[in-house]
Amino acid sequence: xKAKKHVYCQHQSDYEIPFFDVDSAHIMWHGHYIKYFExxxxxxxxxxxxxxxxxxxxxxxxxxxxxNVKYVRPALFRQKIRVTLSVVEYDTCLRIDYVITDLATGKxxxxxxxxxxxxxxxxxxxxxEATENWRKAFEAYKGFQPLA
Length: 148
Known about the structure:
This protein is an alpha+beta fold.
């Protein structure tokens, strides 16, 4: 039996699928889903109060090193969606699980996960743990749930 992941926090962002994200059948092109994951991740960082600008000012970056996506149902033109992200690791890397649902029905459309690592912006060297500023900001977030 697979152990349940600890969720440090969750965040939700709502969007409407615009025309420029769909194909001729009005189905969102598969590559655009990643943009919605990024927008939701940026919204979380804004809420935490430690954005990509702050990360860069501290001399670091957080590149994506792994992305997994499972398309369950297509997102359609003008459909209102909710991206729920669950942070399952934040100290040695940033691991986030995503679920995209139809806002009206709650039906699951897509599930995904990303892994980001901390790198020194000058050397490109991967760091073995998150920076102190990141941990402090993250642990002060209103929805943060530490391990028991």
